[in-house]
Fold each of these.
Amino acid sequence: MSFIAFSPLFASGALRFAFEKATTEGKMTICALIILSIFSWTVIITKSRQLYRARKMGKKFFKSYRDTRDPLEIARRGEEFDGAPAYEVYYAGAEETEYQLKNNPIQIVRVKSLSGGGPTATGAETDILARQITTKISTASFDSVRVCLERASSAQALSLEKGMIVLSTAVAGGPFIGLLGTVWGVMETFSGIARANAASLTAMAPGVAGALIATVVGLFVAIPAMFAYNYMVTTIRAITQELDGFANEYATALEHKYVDNRSLVDELKEVLKPIAQPPPIPELEPAFGS
């Protein structure tokens, strides 16, 4: 009963009748629209799954990243967040930073004075000197890390936008392709009526119905693609902006933790420190009999 009630709404009989009465050109137009619809729905399904996974895994990655102190801790623990664009950017930056730390390291030696050494044999209080060696990279090496982060961000943005051209084509081109089939069908109908000299409604109705079905199919292709395109463009824009902000935040964290930001004066002081302290001169023993 419900099927009978809804069958006039979907006009299944009218669509079948119109398709049967459509011209060869109209049927070719409808076939082209069906092919475009198949591509459009393929993109809608695959892109929806990709964006859903990107948002879900992105939230997990950001939570894990915010809970760490060291910007390389997640990579060193071996955690993976497949499908999160921010994680791909993070991993690319971590990999390049580790490479620079291994191949272009800068050893920074800091000497700290720890009190509590206790009195010596002469009764003087002394301090314990602790040497702390830290491995960092230079500013020039960090430029390579920045370039790597920018390249990874661009690659992830392109991956998110991949396939959207199909939806935009379906939105913009579907109605026009259908309109082309409709105009062509109407032209064929009026040409046939003119040749037959029979300008009656009965003679015109089948041809006009066969022509209008192309526009109907074009709208069926364009309307779902339009809603999906608007939603996906908004989601991709939000993820891309979030990605750019994370790349800047991550670069700043790496710079604070692993980049040698000492001034030139401090570096020269550290280099010249052994030279500025000459070796002690041994005391001369007094001459015999003096």
Note: Residues 13-104+138-274 form one domain.
Amino acid sequence: MIQVHVFRKGHEVTDIPVADLSQVRTEPRTLVWADLVSATPEELAAMGEEFQLHPLALASCAARGKQRPRVEEYDGQVLLIAYASKPVGPGQPVDLHELDVIPGQNFLLTFHGGAPIDAAVVARRVTARPELAKQGAGFLLYVVLDEGVDTFFPTLDQIGERIEDLEEAVFEAVGGVQSQIFSLRRDLIAVRRVAGPMRDAMIVLLRRDLGLFNRESQRYLQDIYDHMVRVVESVEDYQDLASGALEASLAVVSNRVGTVARNLGAYAAIFAVVTMISGIYGMNFQHIPELEWRFGYVWALALMVVSATSLWVYFKRKDWL
């Protein structure tokens, strides 16, 4: 599906046919935005014809999914592979969506699956600043990227809450904590894999002289770069916290194993004394003094009880039991 938005003198027009876009974008101070949602091969071909897109750029837009964020420069246009995030429910992996953007001198093409950005919100923000919209595609590119990048922060907030819950669960010895930590680390790695290259792509977009964005647009794009730096730093901080939670969990498990081993050793020592006494009086020697004693049986039992009790009290004072 293709959604066309044409911005003229602070107003938005959405009823322009795709076939007329090549003519409309030649009008002075007119900005064209074509938003393609789950585009078909025919729609991609139509965009390539109307905007003279490079075949490699079209091929990248057609192959959505698991592409590495990057910037590719072509004649009069740029391909930017970016990502946006979508908040998910508890226990679900992080949901990332690819967003392919091709800005030109006075046009912008976006390719996605429908989840990353809200076209109505973008259009409202652009029409609210007509003095920037008429200067080219730089401000529109900023708004689109800003809407996409801002989706990472709710996801990171969810991850932060998960880390807090895990830190509490670690010391409460709740079962399955380590599996939850590994799941959290997988989500952080997934975000890091797209956030880091997106930050680097913004550096390329800002430092390379593309001739597409004026000075004011670059200031806005610098804000996107700052947001990506915040995202990457947050991911790194959360990765450190997740590693700390995993180490704490392993330490708690090791401490529990040591406590159990200590308890078993203490009880083993108690029963070893009882077994020794019963073993001595169970030997088949003829001249054991207490064998002929009337109270020998009671003596043996009392000796076992006293020995076991004494050891139990000793280990209890040593905090082994």
Note: DSSP finds ten helices and seven strands in the chain.
Amino acid sequence: MGGMELEKGMKLIDENGRRIDGRRPDELRPIKIEAGVLKRAEGSAYVEWGNNKVLAAVYGPREAHPRHNQKAERAIVQCRYNMAPFSVTDRKRPGPDRRSNEISKVIAEAFSNVIFLEQFPRTAVGVYIEVLQADAGTRCAGITAGSVALADAGIPMKDLVVAVASGKVGGVVCLDLNKEEDNFGEADVPMGVAPRTGDLVLLQMDGHLTAAEFDQAMKYSMNAANQIYELQRDALRRRYAVSLEDLKVEMQREAPPPAEEEPKYDVYYDAQPGVQE
């Protein structure tokens, strides 16, 4: 973790236990999630997580290509994680690199553990994650966005996947590291979990933690995962609430106009002249 120099006099953890951006050790960065942001994709989502901005799109299930990748008994998950050249301060070289290939692989494996792949033999589910702006934790933001996009596409899953990272900064275990903390901290532990079952579908580690520090990091991440899970569910609720309203409006437009009722007339009988009633 590094390659940069910390500005002189800058402390990652101050004397009050506050981090460089003012957060407490167990505090998440602000998170915003929107579902159904792309019309051309079968499912999509957009996540703002601190200064990260990530877009995810899902296509499929479709026939897997090339055909030698097909599995006779189940579908496969194909993932492409990509950082845009303008997503970082120093322009990134376009196209896949070793890091993006590795992250694409672990994300595909994470989703393979929750999708009911056996329902779609010989097909592929494509998950495309584009990092538009990066500020540490992009794989976690990408998994969180991709999971919402899969649900938006109607892909049957055991549960949504939530990803979040904890680590160690200035000797203190902290949740959800930002760029400076990731660059100059001592450890980073990204984790992906299916909150309903508690199954871990991703666990990586960069750096060193003691057993007690690792337990604390996992406790922070698990608690945060439950918070993010509710944000994912809320994004999907808003998405389908809008869809239902649009459907109602469309049905009202297509409904035939109500039949006009025949006018009703009041009938009056005039007595004949000279005839007593």
Note: The mean pLDDT is 88.
Amino acid sequence: MSSYNDSLSRRSFLAATASAALAARAYNQSIPIGLELYSVRDDLKRDLTGTVQAVAKMGYQDVEFFSPYFEWTPDYARGVRHTLDEAGIRCLSTHNDSQAFHPDKLDRAIELNHILGCRYVVLAHPGEISTLDGYRRVAEMLNQATEKLKPAGLAAGYHNHQDEFKPIDGKRPMEVLASDTDKSIMLQLDVGTCIEAGSDPVAWIKANPGRIKSLHLKEWSHEPGKGYKVLFNEGDAPWAKIFDAAESVGGVEFYLIEQEGSDYPELETAQRCLASFRKLHAG
């Protein structure tokens, strides 16, 4: 019969083995880490060039411009691209409202995204949708846009908020968007809003292999008064499991830190979040 000490020794060995396996986790260090520039929106509005340069100096490898970029002239966009190139940082995707996907505006979206060097034209928000049929129409809009984006070397994307993970008539709108859109359309996962809505981001990634090509690494805390104000890795998101799923089955190509606001100035917030990401993702 095994002694108590023998049993304890085995348990200690198994615990040590598990800890070693966790410590040995190897994440893909070639996946770039970027910043959704909404995180520094006030600084960006005051000084776009200086803000992009500051973000690049921190060590961010790419950025995502949001919808005001759509009002730029091609010449202004070329100036922004020059700034990006000089700073050694890329723009891999843009956030857009639904107007960018309308047939009469899609050529403009293609031109601006080509100038910036993007891969994805992402629908950031579809407007107020309250029915599953409404989301089916959004899916059809994305499919139609894809027919024009693909030949131009671009892909469409969809970015979720809370509503897409809240069931309507017993079904989550994100399930409709995933099933009714062309498989080339990226499902850009906003982690924080997914968690706030009560859904499991890891399960969602695993249910949509190869389509989670980008993630917004937005944090969320259920603690009263905190919500989205907590910095990366200070909330409820299970980041280690999320990274494992994104890199093993999700098909992630790039990560994007996003912060809606915190107790720190915008650029300091971005820098603190990047430092936390580097520490965690270094595994």
Note: The chain is about 45% helix and 15% strand.
